[in-house]
Amino acid sequence: MSVQCTVVVPTIGRPSLDVLLDALATATGPRPAELLVVDDRPAGKPLDVARDGLPPVRVVRTGGGGPARARNLGWRTARTEWIAFLDDDVVPDPDWYERLAEDLDGLPGDVAGSQGRVHVPLPEDRRPTDWERGTAGLATSSWITADLAYRRTALARVGGFDERFPRAFREDSDLALRVMDTGARLVRGRRRITHPVRPVDRWISLRVQAGNADDVLMRRLHGPDWRRRADAALGRRPQHTAITAAAVAAVAFAAARTPRAAALAAGAWLAGTAEFAWRRIASGPRTRAEVTTMALTSAAIPPLATWHWLKGVVQHRGVQTWRGLPDLVLFDRDGTLVHDFPYNGDPDWVRPVDGAREALDRLRARGVRVGVVSNQSGVARRLITTEQVEACNARLAELLGPFDVIRYCPHGPDDGCACRKPAPGMVKDACAELGVDPARCVVIGDIGADVDAASAAGAVGILVPTPVTRKSEVAAATRSVKTLAVGIENVLTGRW
């Protein structure tokens, strides 16, 4: 491919994944740089993804967390300009690779994403069922990640998918609106996938009503006109609310012993429910099983939809715009990751603080890159050598795992360099090396110089005080936490 692209497939291990991988293995055209399969199962045996003909394949695991978190781990792990998302239950056309390359090649810089075309096959010998008609709506939906490629920089700028959307519903529309709010455009390409109708049980229409809570979140985040901007139909929620209100009124009037009012309310409920059921039955195959299912679920859907909507109203009060995880967390070394032995040049004295390895591994597991920025004035003072500093840094990586970037300043306080903290040089250099916007970087350290360097670079600083931290530095810090573990928890939950 003339553009660098990674294909990301989040999966919960459905059999359809094998069909997708087989299709990708036999498709013609230039292979992407990598295929990232994100295993979103809480546990289970390793997935069998080996196929001749696939691009290089890597499997990463979330441990469970939902489709938004799985996609976030995928794009954060990738290092290419473009990220092409595919769902694990679609089948790309044989020329999908070729069309993907054509769709992405030469796109203007203001285009942040390209959506593929979706085909949903429906039965030719009968009318489609309620579930089949619902799935067919994907063919005309906007900005769905069944097949949607984004620039990695666009994803990083808005923090990726909002993980407060727990289902595969609305999280893609939310992302699209936030990306377009930056002034970027989304376009439609020529590549095509087939989205088969998955087999489901007869009660699926009841479970999908949970999405009404997600609609509340969309309104809170994007305002009352979000449906127009996202090209999302209103559906029947107003009618469901009215039918539910009629049922509640009938019960209330009956309890108050006003039978005439109770009968009128019950009649309104019955008429609304019957109209809803008939609309679903008339469009379907009208088999005995389908009619029975439509009749039963049509009585249950209005109150269930209303309940989830009210639940969303309560749950999503005061919600703020999604910030996501930072792209990079930089740590001070001595006093933050390891115990501070002044001017240490002996790798044997590199001793991690409690919880340091766990904190770093939590970030790595979510696809956040990690690095070190450390003042080492002992070099300028001729107390240690650069070789000793590098030996200690090598030991640090041996004990705490690999770092994406390590920077240290060998200068003294009076040398006037641009790298020694509180100067921003090391932070800026680390971000530049990894292609990270400093605004998406967090710096964690134990003294004021660490957070001041972050501020000067345009990054976010978090202070983790130790007994040697000055009280004035603690008082001046915008963000101060008691322990490294608390700081990492704040980063992972968007409070940074």
UniProtKB/TrEMBL annotation:
Subcellular location: Cytoplasm
NCBIfam families: HAD-SF-IA-v3 (TIGR01509), HAD-SF-IIIA (TIGR01662), Histidinol-ppas (TIGR01656)
Residues covered by region (Disordered): 108-129
Protein name from the UniProt record: D,D-heptose 1,7-bisphosphate phosphatase
Positions of the Glycosyltransferase 2-like domain: 6-123
Domain of life assignment: Bacteria
Tagged with keyword Cytoplasm: yes
One of the GO BP terms on file: carbohydrate metabolic process
Keywords associated with the record: Carbohydrate metabolism, Cytoplasm, Hydrolase, Metal-binding
Protein family: Belongs to the GmhB family.
Provenance organism: Petropleomorpha daqingensis
Signal peptide: none
Chain coiled-coil ranges: none
An annotated Gene Ontology molecular function: phosphatase activity
GO cellular component terms attached to this protein's record: cytoplasm
